[in-house]
Design a protein that fits this description.
alpha/beta, seven-stranded parallel sheet, 12 helices, 29% helix, globular, EC 3.2.1.51, hydrolase, GH
């Protein structure tokens, strides 16, 4: 049935890309990212960890699950909603059975977590978030509260030397110096306490009236809390708990179920085990959304709260055959635009069911790492500074005496301009250097800043770069 399922998501995945994984009316309400609903953490340990996280600037989000084995869009084919298409299937139940049946073939014997960690470190990545469980409910770790997991003794992966994929990946990443986080889906479309088999599922929400069956919903709340407790207890130091499925949240809005899973207890319990843990309850404004997560987009201007753009390297979060991937240059320019506005880039990538990343993914990451080796000073631990960007020029700063102008050449540029004006308020004699090659550049003072002269001998070669960084130090 695998070939049939592949056909299904040719349409579905592109639809999700176009919709930016819109999470219904709940996400639409919050996707404007105003920042005015943000609540500053009260816990000093959380504040300190959040400040460190803001300096990282570049992370990866790895999606891996049943969908990786099938090479399709993650989980969403299970959602019985009008926009979802399942070409090749005449009924929902056949598709759902085939999808969940992928657990009997998922066996990532080629997963080399040490190789992964080195690849990400060499790419300049500072933090990694791994999917412990997506909306389909399949656990990529050894949960004791379900058999729907990759470590189930009846599944082929259980015979591997390191069957707990989450533990394997997090441990290797920490050894390479990466900060780590765990993605977890609050909805669970296989749990009998979320989608009860007594009723057919009708959309992404619980398929029963939780007011009529409060005990069933409380069983799901306890199940969620138990799983999050084991994730923050048994998997070493965790820096970020990244919770997806923003429609599962308290609500007093007419016509919407009050899907309260008691985030207060979840956060308090987790932070007893993980002091300073950053909790990201996505799209749920309040004290458990420690940073904002605009998806597949870059904010138009800086906001005075922590934020992270989560953007896929290809069209999809997980692995899909023949996906179209961004080049290293595109990622570098995307990263620059985000950092200039004070955000982080969380780049979405996914391995196939065997545990391998596509060569195009490895190539793009290697290109990003090579550029950051030279120019990372203008990215890591920087702050946004007005005017943030003008045309092809983007700004970052470090302290009160250093400004970086990052010029992003367009693909059709034969050479970069002979003169680049960098706005700044630095006083006195300035040291102006091209980071690539440490070439000292001459300049002249102009209104609001300086005009930096780019030698004729360098302009053509610099136009081939993903980004040209000029450091201006007072």
């Amino acid at each position: 049935m695998r070939s049939r399922i592949k056909l299904v998501f040719t349409v579905c995945c592109f639809a999700m890309s176009a919709l930016s994984h819109a999470q219904g009316d709940i996400m639409a309400e919050n996707e404007k990212i105003p920042g005015d609903t943000y609540v500053d953490p009260k816990d000093q340990a959380v504040k300190d960890n959040l400040a460190k996280w803001q300096d990282y600037k570049f992370g990866v989000l790895i999606h891996m699950g049943l969908y990786s084995q099938l090479g399709i869009c993650e989980s969403w084919g299970l959602a019985p909603e009008d926009w979802v298409t399942r070409n090749g299937y005449d009924d929902y139940d056949s598709f759902a059975s085939d999808y969940r049946g992928a657990r009997f073939s998922l066996n990532p014997t080629q997963l080399d977590s040490e190789k992964w960690a080195k690849m990400f470190k060499n790419a300049g990545v500072k933090y990694l978030i791994f999917t412990s469980k997506h909306h389909d409910g399949f656990c990529m770790y050894d949960s004791k509260f379900t058999d729907f997991k990759i470590t189930n003794p009846n599944l082929p992966n259980a015979k591997n030397p390191k069957p707990d994929v989450l533990k394997n990946v997090l441990d290797a990443s920490r050894k390479e110096g990466l900060s780590v986080g765990i993605y977890f889906s609050k909805p669970d479309w296989t749990s009998q306490d979320f989608w009860w088999k007594y009723y057919p599922p009708k959309d992404r929400n619980p398929n029963y009236d939780i007011k009529a069956y409060p005990e069933r919903w409380q069983n799901f709340v306890k199940y969620t809390q138990n799983q999050l407790d084991e994730l923050t207890t048994n998997y070493g130091k965790v820096d970020v708990l990244w919770l997806d499925g923003g429609w599962v949240r308290p609500s007093d809005k007419k016509g919407r179920q009050n899907l309260d899973i008691n985030m207060k207890l979840i956060a308090e319990t987790a932070r007893k085990k993980q002091p300073g843990l950053i909790v990201v309850d996505r799209w749920v404004p309040g004290e458990y959304e420690d940073y904002l997560t605009p998806e597949r987009k870059v904010l138009e201007k800086p906001i005075p709260v922590p934020w992270e753009s989560c953007v896929t390297l290809g069209n999809d979060w997980g692995w899909v055959p023949n996906d179209k991937y961004k080049s290293g240059t595109e990622v570098i320019q995307l990263l620059t635009g985000i950092v200039s506005k004070g955000g982080n880039l969380l780049l979405g990538v996914g391995p196939d069911g065997k545990g391998n990343f596509e060569p195009k993914i490895e190539q793009a990451l290697a290109e990003v790492g090579k550029w950051l080796d030279v120019n990372g000073e203008a990215i890591y631990a920087t702050k946004p500074i007005a005017p943030y960007s003008e045309g092809n020029l983007y700004y970052t700063s470090k302290g009160e005496k250093t400004v970086f102008g990052i010029y992003l050449p367009k693909g059709n540029e034969k050479e970069i301009p002979a003169e680049i004006v960098i706005k700044n308020n630095l006083k006195g004699k300035l040291n102006v250097v091209l980071l690539d090659g440490k070439t000292k550049l001459s300049y002249k003072n102009v209104a609001g800043g300086i005009a930096v002269a780019i030698p004729k001998s360098l302009r053509e070669e610099l136009a081939k770069k993903a980004g040209v960084v000029i450091k201006v130090a007072g």
